[in-house]
Amino acid sequence: MTTFDEDDELLAELAAIRPDQTDVFARSVHASIRRNLIGETGEPFRLGRFTVLEPLGGGGMGVVFVAYDPVLDRKIALKVLHNRGDRGRREVLREGRALARLKHPNVVAVFEVGELDDRVFVAMEYVDGHNLREWLRQPRTTAAILARLVEAGRGLAAAHAVELVHRDFKPENVVIDGNGHARVIDFGLARPIAELPEPAQSAAVAPATAASVHGGTPAYMAPERLAGAAGDHRSDQYSFCVTAWEALFGARPADARARVAQAQGRSVPGWLRKVLERGLSAAPGDRYPTTEALLAALRADPTRRRRVVAAVVVAGLAVAGWFGVRDYREAQTVASCEADGASMAGAWRPEARTKLRDGMLASGVAYAETAADKVVPYFVAQAEALTQARTEGCLNARVRGTWDEDTLARSVWCLEVRRLEFEALLDALSQPKATSVQAAVDAAAALSPTGPCLDASQLARLPPLPPDPERHQAVRRQLARAGALRTAGDYDEGLREAREALAAAEDLDWPALTADARRRVGMLLVEGGKYQEAEPMLEDAYFEAARAGALEVTANAAVDLAETVGYRQARYLDGLRWSRLAEVAAAAIEPEDRLSTRRSEIVSTRAKIHEGKGDYAEAQALLERVLAMDEKLLGPEHPHVANTLNNLANVHWATRAYAEARPLYERALAIHEKTLGSDHPHLATTLNNLANIHLATGSYDEGRAILERVVATEEKVLGPEHPDFAISLHNLASAYRLKGAYAEARVLYERTLAIREKVLGPEHPSVAQSLNSIAGILSRTGAYEEARVMHARALALREKALGPDHPDVASSLHNLAGVHRSMGAYGDAKPLFERALAIWEQAFGPEHVSLAAPLESLALVHVALGEYDRASPLAERALAVREKKLGPDHPDVAFSLVNLALVRASTGAYEEAEALYRRALAIDEAKLGPDHPEVAYTLIGLAEVALARDRPAEAVALAERSTGILAGREAPADKLADSRFVLARALVAALADKDRALALARQARDGLRAVNGKSKELAQVEAFLTQHEDRR
Amino acid sequence: MLPVLLMRTDIELLDAWCAGDNVAGDALIRRHFEAVCRFFRSKLGEDVEDLIQRTFQICTVRRKELQADGSFRGFLFGVARNLLLDHLRRLYRRGEHDDVHMYSLRDLGTTPSEAVARNEREVMIQEAMRRIPLEQRMLLELAHWERLTGREIAQALDIGENTVRSRLSRARAALREELERLGSKDSL
Fold first, then answer.
1. Most buried in the list A117, A358, A428, B45, measured by CB within 10 Å?
2. Domain of life of the organism in this record (chain A) (predicted)?
């Protein structure tokens, strides 16, 4: 065995400065360890005039013993503080003097403060008992807990009254003595208010730092102290209320929503909770102005009890159950992590919530109040998620040891981005704007999930963090603001912000940031319709991000390009290619089988592109996948799920799969009602779609009922002069029209017209739509000249607004031509029909169902002009097209059947004509009801055929029926005349009531005379009358 | 009942303590408390009660790692050293495999508790000790404050026994260099 004591002066000097461990610190630590490991206390030892009996524990500030003071002749608690240098000593001595001034039954007394063995000591009253936390381990009534809290509060108030602040109030610092009374201890950090240093200038000092600068336990610290301020009696009030809450509810108060949940689980009266909540206000000014006021509020319960404060008696039990030192330290770290977490949700204070609500209500939108209520849970959930994620990450790194500090730093950065997003959205939605109220819930539901910030493998794939994050912060904040403005619908402002952010980002020369800024500018350009400018910007963003290894931005840019290029600009192949690139980027971030909102978005965009392309089957399959993903990720009642349901239903609608579409719309509607409230405009959209399904399947009553509901809501919510209200009104009118209630329909159409002319101006295309509809009604009621004027006006409007080849122009041409035809001006009608047909063929292709109507009209014109051979193929084609798309039983198919029958009849093919008529009749009776005008028209046709086939009795029966139908309602005069005329002829041919026949014929003549362009028919009637009137 | 305490070896005391003999444990702690206390306090300051306590606790937990012919002191300081380095890593945010022992106390910025220096020379020596790498400082402490044998030092620092001497010379040289550097300045 060799030692290393060489004869060396240096080594001797080194040995000489070896520190002995004989001071009071070493001895107290030894005693503590003995007690913890061996279970025995040591021999008492002298410390100045005191006899140290046993240690009570230690902490960051110093060690505490039970000791005997011969001067006071009593047992005391002796606190010996760690050596903190001269300055620390001065402060502590000052504290001690302040404390010695305080004498109160609910405060543990300080007898003396001095110096011992080069350290400061504090000789305090020794209180036998348990601290509040231990005391609470037994079940206690609310009243008992409250009584103790009030006592402790009195102690605090007494300190405040002499301008002392406790600064570390918590359950461990309240002792319940042998008589059951609460005493506040460990005013070790108390400092007279007048001597407190200035609050810290910087905003957020990390809680651990705050604790070391001014002392205190972060979990109980008031927000202003966490932020670095020194605090005052109101900070003590906060800590008191946290303690009280924990004592009464069993857990410390978390955020607002969790507080409500906590409150509901315990038998704590509501008034008490409210008092504590005030004390827990984030802003000191919102709390009770004095501690006395708080106490008064606490004592002001409906069941007052008198409490007697006994004299202080020192008993002989040992203080038990201090935290083991290690647990205490870990608890401190945990508390510090929790404080970090809490700081994430700093923006979501009660004032912020009020401001949000006020801002939304100030927009003046009728459903704002509902929207304000509906949007809150999403913010609450995100605040909670941010807090939790931050805390978890900290625990992983600092307590569990599963993360290293670098991973934590990345996680914090990831969460910081989300925090900025949260604040920006909160701010944007708090501005009073109608567009943002409408978008509120969707936007709040779309806040980025925090999961990726807790996924170590994903975090590892983030690009490296910038060296100077503070400078980036400003740009990030601006980008978040731009994003929020975009989701709130304020595109101009958002674009401005984004452009500024891009300029600032370029200065910083950090490609990941610049790429992201560029992407946002690109997307805002897209929202403003500036696709030409947007595309190169987005492409640049994509490549820049890819080069910088910023995978998230790369994926996002690729998705944006897919949507813009593939969907909005209808360049399908390019769009699909971008979506594949997005997949590649996404796969580099997370495994392929992982569900995420990013994946969902990519598939969703692909579906949209396929839909636009007309690949409905593919679109449907993709949307079903998206639906499954979103239901799993977000829950089955999330706004996004409703949107996907709506989109899927639209695809079904496009393929006329009404039965599949309907339950999807209905489910989307249910979700919208839950998440948006029943007054939200989104509901009107879904309801309209649902109504259209009903109308398209012939369920006119159901469709009408839904539309009436929409109209009622929108009139209330949007006001009676809103264009969207006009749309719903128009749809309702159409429902009436389809049912045959022309008068009601006309009233509504005219109202729509008035709104549109006023609000959108008399040249707006939607005005043409209203004119068109009214004219249609006029036609049906026989007012052909008026109808013609209206159609002509609509046509002119549309040609001007939409250009000569637009399908809507073709509509007007067709309708105008129809009126001409009804008035007998076949020569005028024909070219218009031909032009309409040409436009439609061009727009939709030769097989499209929309061609049926113009084909038939043209066919009938040819019939009227005697060009039967030209009529026939057109009518056949029309029927075929309709049957193919609508199936054999649709009312429109009946219409085609009637037209073809007419053509057949005019060429003498009566048998065929009858078969066609009968088929049409069956459909009309079933789908429209036995009293619908269309039934009457078909009956007229059948009657004519019957007459032509020499079956007058049958003709009479048919014609009676048709006349009966038409006479009982507001039918076009000429149609009624037709009916009467055929009845007249049938009666004559049946050798029946001739007088009646003549009367009918005269009525028919009068009727025809009242209508323009019926000269041919009129001549026929006149001829008949002449023929039969003379033969008497 | 006061048992007669024979002069048992450290390992005998340890084994007895592990078997439940608290008196033996008490004696063992009494023998080595000052050294362990000094070890931590001279580097970290006063907030070390937990570390000291754990050092002793871990000795009982990891008793098996101590060979029959090994030295308790070497084992004890090995445990203490590991606790110290872990603590520093956590406190100063170093990764698991980082070489925190290569840093000096000055670099790490701790506030150690030291003896009161009686003159300027002692002040300088204390300062120089703060500036050499932790590993070298520990080597010097173990050799010159605690007077561990070469074998014990090797066990404590987990190095080869034959390297102890050469490392110690290097440590002394480093200390001398620091002193020279400090001496050439006007003030510390």
1. A428
2. Bacteria
